[in-house]
């Protein structure tokens, strides 16, 4: 008996009695695996090998099998043969041959409600919901029917979680196959990657997870080397045999969001519902919701932002993080001659310190950007698929030249205000920028009321709601801890090649900019937009590359604003670049009320100091 290579996948196979198996071991396993579960029995492992699993993974898998009672187990490895089998299974279930050509299947987001996200943690402060503003208060510009944005998800007690777990997951995989999928957020083997396992009975989730993150057999090796990994469990909640009344024609049912529980202390995610994994937002459950908590413990940030590369005519390039409620495409950037603005990533961004600089990296797989698949919001289960076929897919391919990402020269928050918020504002320091961003308020359209038309016309068309850090997702732990972690990120980390600690100075964090393209006068937008949007990034480029040059900046108590901009249209820039003292004193008062309401006794001391200093400067 000797080792040789499989002729199909080049995987080491066993040559026994001068005969080599011509069938790939990924299609037909070399041996039959059977998992023996106490108080349940034997469950066959139809694909994969139990020897791949570490003791921690095996223990967690054993617990899930006892609870969910699947008929078979499949241990996934991300191979092309496995993906094709998943496509065939999905096509047989939905009755469409076009599904055999796709690597990603998504439902239409407009037909699905929000996910019901709950937090189970030992520290009640980390799961306390954001408190809505009391009716009639002045800390938000909302009416009596509008509540503040929810800063956190619902808190779930231990007894409530055990009750929901037993109710929704007990026997939920009867007659179904349990898939065990390893995944890596970030390049496999990277020092900044986070690995995890996904247990599910939905082949669509397995296929989408393969194209969202990195799923390969080598992830099992990294899971064996650590005990800190994400443990995710999901079920569509349809055990077999399915007993239901068949109605013809089938009535239309609006899909609802999934039920999700985040167990921060144990790094677990429990999800129930068939919509989980079938929408583009399911990846944020791991890369934002779960990773934010991990980042606070390990010293990095997980945020919703895009990474832009700005290049000047001298071929000098800087990278910036751009956080906005709208996509970068909505800016319709048309840089001037010699300038170039490229979108490196517009999904999730992880920010960390490395060698005295702040770096940013997208943990999601970015080859799908080249194929245009993540931007597709059509219902691929029923709609046309000719435009969404993917010719090739390589989970290891990446745009990044280094696993640490790209150095960040600035962090930009694109606000949306119709009042006197300036066009461009550069914070005086990292602490002041974090303070302004943590209490950021954005303009939203005011819903129509049942009052008369005259009162509607006389009332303002927009209201202001709090949106800290322009984060569309809930923070899911203490807002005070979240803001304090942002303050801590401003403390530079010493480079490994630095001199002795006696002469060491902490590297400065990148500057924080705020932009606002929606300022109005008498209901009309002042900023022309179009080709002039790129002038904002050109100005930020100059401030980042030559921060000591203050010739084109006007200092103020709240920050720096540009003196002038070279625009293509005739625009009155004075109201766009004006820092109104009365407006900002009122704004700081709103920030103080908002912070006291949300944080109470947990208010970070540096936040109170920054608010006092800003008011004194004004």
Key traits:
alpha/beta, 24% helix, elongated, 13 helices, 618 residues, single chain, 22% strand, 6-stranded mixed beta sheet, 28 strands, 10-stranded mixed beta sheet
Write the layout of secondary structure elements.
Elements: E1 2-5, E2 12-15, E3 33-37, E4 41-47, H1 55-68, E5 72-75, H2 80-94, E6 116-120, E7 154-155, H3 158-169, E8 177-185, E9 194-200, H4 203-212, H5 219-224, E10 230-235, E11 259-263, E12 268-272, H6 284-298, E13 301-304, E14 306-311, E15 317-324, E16 340-345, E17 348-354, E18 357-361, H7 367-371, E19 406-407, E20 410-415, E21 424-426, H8 430-438, E22 441-445, H9 453-458, E23 462-466, H10 479-489, E24 512-516, E25 520-521, E26 524-525, H11 533-545, E27 553-555, E28 560-562, H12 581-599, H13 605-617
Short description:
This protein is of the alpha/beta class and 618 residues long.
User: What is the average per-residue confidence, as pLDDT, rounded to a whole number?
Assistant: 78
Query: What is the count of helical runs?
Result: 13
* Straight-line distance between termini: 82 Å
Instruction: Output the strand order for the largest sheet.
Output: 3-4-5-8-9-10-12-11-6-7
The tally of beta strands, per DSSP, is 28
CA gyration radius, whole angstroms: 27 Å
Strand content: 15-25%
Shape: elongated
Proportion in helices: 10-25%
Instruction: Note poorly predicted spans.
Output: 6-31, 129-150, 369-392, 452-459
What would you call the structural class? alpha/beta
Main β-sheet, in a few words? Answer: 10 strands, mixed
């Amino acid at each position: 008996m000797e080792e040789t290579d499989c002729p199909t996948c080049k995987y080491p196979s066993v040559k026994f009695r001068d005969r080599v198996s011509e069938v790939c071991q990924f299609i037909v396993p070399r041996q039959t695996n059977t998992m023996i579960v106490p108080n349940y029995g034997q469950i066959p492992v139809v694909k994969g090998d139990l020897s791949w699993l570490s003791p921690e993974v095996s223990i967690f898998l054993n617990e899930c099998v006892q609870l969910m009672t699947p008929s078979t187990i499949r241990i996934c490895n991300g191979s092309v043969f496995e993906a094709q089998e998943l496509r065939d299974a999905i096509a047989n279930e939905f009755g469409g041959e076009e599904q055999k050509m796709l690597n990603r299947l998504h439902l239409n987001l407009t037909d699905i409600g929000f996910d019901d996200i709950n937090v189970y943690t030992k520290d009640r402060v980390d799961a306390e919901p954001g408190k809505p503003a009391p009716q009639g208060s002045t800390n938000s510009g909302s009416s009596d029917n509008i509540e503040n944005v929810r800063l956190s998800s619902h808190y779930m007690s231990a007894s409530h979680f055990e009750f929901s777990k037993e109710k929704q997951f007990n026997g939920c995989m009867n007659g179904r196959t349990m898939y065990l999928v390893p995944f890596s957020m970030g390049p496999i083997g990277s020092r900044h990657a986070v690995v995890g396992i996904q247990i599910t009975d939905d082949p669509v989730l397995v296929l989408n997870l393969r194209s969202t993150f990195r799923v390969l057999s080598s992830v099992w090796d990294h899971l064996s080397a650590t005990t800190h990994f994400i443990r995710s469990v999901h079920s569509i909640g349809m055990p077999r045999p399915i007993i239901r009344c068949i109605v013809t024609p089938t009535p239309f049912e609006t899909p609802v969001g999934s039920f999700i529980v985040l167990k921060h202390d144990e790094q677990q995610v429990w999800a129930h519902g068939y919509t989980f994994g079938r929408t583009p937002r399911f990846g944020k459950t791991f890369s934002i919701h779960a990773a934010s908590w991990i980042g606070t413990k390990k010293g990095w940030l997980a945020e919703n932002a895009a990474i832009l590369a700005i290049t000047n005519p001298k071929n000098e390039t800087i990278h910036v993080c751009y956080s906005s409620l709208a996509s970068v495409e909505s800016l319709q950037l048309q840089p001037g001659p010699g300038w170039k603005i490229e979108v490196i990533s517009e999904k999730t961004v992880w920010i960390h310190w490395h060698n005295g600089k702040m770096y940013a990296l997208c943990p999601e797989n970015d080859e799908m950007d080249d194929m245009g698949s993540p931007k597709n919001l059509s219902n691929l289960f029923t709609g046309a698929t000719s435009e969404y076929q993917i010719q090739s897919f390589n989970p290891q391919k990446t745009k990044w030249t280094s696993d640490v990402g790209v150095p960040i020269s600035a962090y930009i928050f694109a606000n949306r205000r119709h009042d006197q918020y300036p066009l461009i504002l550069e914070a005086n320091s990292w602490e002041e920028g974090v303070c302004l961003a943590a209490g950021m308020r954005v303009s939203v359209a005011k819903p129509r009321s049942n009052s008369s038309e005259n009162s509607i016309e006389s009332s303002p068309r927009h209201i202001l709601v709090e949106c800290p850090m322009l984060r569309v997702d809930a923070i899911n732990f203490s807002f005070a801890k979240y803001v304090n972690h942002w303050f801590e990120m401003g403390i530079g980390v010493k480079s490994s090649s630095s001199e002795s600690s006696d002469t060491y100075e902490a590297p400065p964090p990148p500057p924080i900019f705020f932009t606002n393209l929606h300022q109005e006068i008498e209901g009309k937008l002042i900023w022309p937009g179009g080709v002039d949007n790129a002038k904002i990034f050109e100005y930020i480029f100059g401030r980042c590359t030559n921060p000591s040059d203050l010739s084109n900046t006007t200092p103020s108590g709240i920050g720096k604003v540009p003196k002038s901009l070279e625009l293509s249209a005739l625009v009155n820039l004075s109201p766009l670049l004006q820092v109104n003292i009365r407006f900002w004193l009122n704004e700081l008062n709103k920030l103080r009320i908002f912070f006291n309401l949300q944080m109470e006794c947990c208010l970070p001391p540096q936040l109170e100091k920054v608010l006092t200093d800003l008011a004194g400067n004004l």
